[in-house]
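Pasting as-is:
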Amino acid sequence: MKKLFICAFLVYAASLQAQPMGKGNLPPVFPKEVAEKTQFDTRTRAYISPVRVMWTQNGDLITGSENLLLQGNGQATTANTPKTVFVSKEGKRPSILLDFGREIHGGLQFVTCIRASTKPVKVRVRLGESVGEAMCEITKENGATNDHAMRDYTIELPWLGVCEVGNSGFRFVRIDMLEDDVELPIKEIRASLLYRDIPYLGSFRSNDPRVDSIWATGAYTLHLNLQEYLVEAPKRDRLVWLGDLHPEVRTALAVFGDNEALSRGLDFARDETPLPGWMNGMCSYSLWWVLIHRDYYMYRGDLNYLKQQQQYLSDLMKILMSKVDAEGREHLDGGGRFLDWPTSEDTLAVNAGLHALMLMTFEAGAEMLNALGDKELAAQCTATADRMKKVTPDYKTSKQSAALIALAGIVPAETANKEVLEVGGAHGFSTFYGYYMLKAQALAGDYTDAIQNMKDYWGGMLDLGATTFWEDFDINWKKNAARIDELIPAGKVDVHRTYGDYCYKGYRHSLAHGWASGPTAWLSEYVLGVKIVEPGCKAVKIEPNLGGLEWVEGTVPTPYGVIKVRHEKQADGKIKSKIEVPKGVKVVK
């Protein structure tokens, strides 16, 4: 799998190129040929001051560190303003660790003051998603790297000026002086947050603050990945991975509604993957491209956009049909057979999961082809799906494969839940496929256990200080674990350094990963109960499922405006609902 990851990354890294994005105008002094090639950013930059100084080394050589917590303005000045002064002398060099309060995507801004020497001063900057990462060295044992985005580097700060550096995901920053006998007065050190300034149209509240925090944290995790493209993490890999995009797109639609980054990422993957190639070098990721487009079409109802996918979709479906034998068994080859990392060495789980994914892909393809008027190819897809339903692979080795088998309708969801999904609670959940485990438990009607599993699993990351959801997590990691937002106490486990596997061992592990945002989409669709029935959200069903919750309320965006709901559980167990839908949306039974 490591080889697969490296190969897929090299293909994508080589293919990245500038494309038209945001709208804008260069000043008229630029020639036309320059303006035609210019790309404008669609994002906003905001500057955030630290919320606390967590640690210093040789702290007696730092004066006024509390001034770093003041609001800044990014402007160097000759005036005598509050400042922090770092001094290296007598062979001692000071260091400081800052906390910006939550994970962000972006870099740092340094504003320096007047000093005796105008020579630039060298400092070392270390960014960390955890305190441990910000304090570590890049070693094989630590797993820390500068892959995809620089997080450990040396810079020179100017005399009386402003320096902006960095483009990664982080919360904590360690800064070390690197030279002897120098003085560095600094007016400001601020984080530079780069993000899409878009409203949170979706919302969720309930009587359980832990559930509310999970919805909000998933929404924010996705927001950090909603850059010029929808990528899967701000630290790494910062790439358009198609499998990751399925829960990400579902969350984006539940929180923000449609956004240009969604279609841009889908089109990018299509254009960068000529058939018969597999997206990202993995057959399952081409399947996810089809499933995403079906969901995207149901939300947008944009037939013109779907027509732009028709040739690629049709050719892909024909290739996929050639990979199914007469008995209905799949034979996907020529690309990595992959579900998620925890199942990557479980052949039975991968085989069962791919079979179910492929079946659902044929059903989704048939839906879209019917909408496009290609009844003949749609019928072929349906016939292939029907043939695959007669095959029941061994799905009992993992919750990932059991969830997909249930969602594909190969076995009753109640059966898969009783045999596999409910066993051991949140043990065996994964950040990516946990979304599908929740969906399968909902299909089985087991909302109480699903909500509890969500609280235990995603809530377990919150218990360890997470402000975004991680690339991977196991609730067993909580045993004797230190929080990621504190210096590691003696005798406690540094979760970030100790755990992780495959390509994400130790501090290389991403602690803000878009594929982990699934509970946000799940809560909106299954607990608030808003499900799309007709393309474009023209018709929806609203079927709340509160499990053990007493009340829930929230909003769900549609192309026509937001749907507002509030559901309260009555003394007799029945649900009383208040529903407001925008004009153009009808509620059906």
